[in-house]
Amino acid sequence: MSPRLDATRVLLADDHAVVRLGFRLLLEGAGAHVCGEVDSGEAALRRYAELAPDVLVIDVSMPGMGGLAALERLLARHPEARVLVFSAHQDAVIPSRALRLGARGYLCKRCAPEEFLRAVARVAAGERYLDPELAPAVALAQLGSAAHPVEALTEKEFEVFLQLAQGRSVNDVAKDFFLSPSTVGSHLYHIKQKLNLQNAAEMALLAVRSGLVEA
Q: pTM of this prediction?
């Protein structure tokens, strides 16, 4: 039986309109109120400040700064925010990062509709939630038993790595993250050093093979 979400106010952040429509139909069918929809991390920050929803459901891969950078900025401004990260990523790295940044929950997009509603209900109640299929891998990663090379990166380096691995330029990343190009260039240098990468092609290949970005 699906949980009820009566009067729960939810803000949706995903760059695919069809995905947001599916979320909306599921949530409203369970009694929730979708108070807003946005398609980027920047817009999520603005609308959260305006709407103060009970739960923010946010995707990781979106235009601009993306979901993880938006999550970090949001919680710096609104530490009480209840955020459910909902993504296609099935590895342990992304959920571990999201939870470490302060997300209350993480769910993979391949989940059943009832599991999505259960995750929203848990996060709305102030509880923690982690996709049951990912929990063992995340636990091992946090214990250091399944360390991935990118775990050597700082949070900011990891966010920059994700953006550059998707083919974005240093200038584009600098603009979206409100950093100088030289600062992003410095992050890029450390990323290459830590991951033993020579160029952008190797960076993209590592990200794809690790399931961090789509091919």
A: 0.75
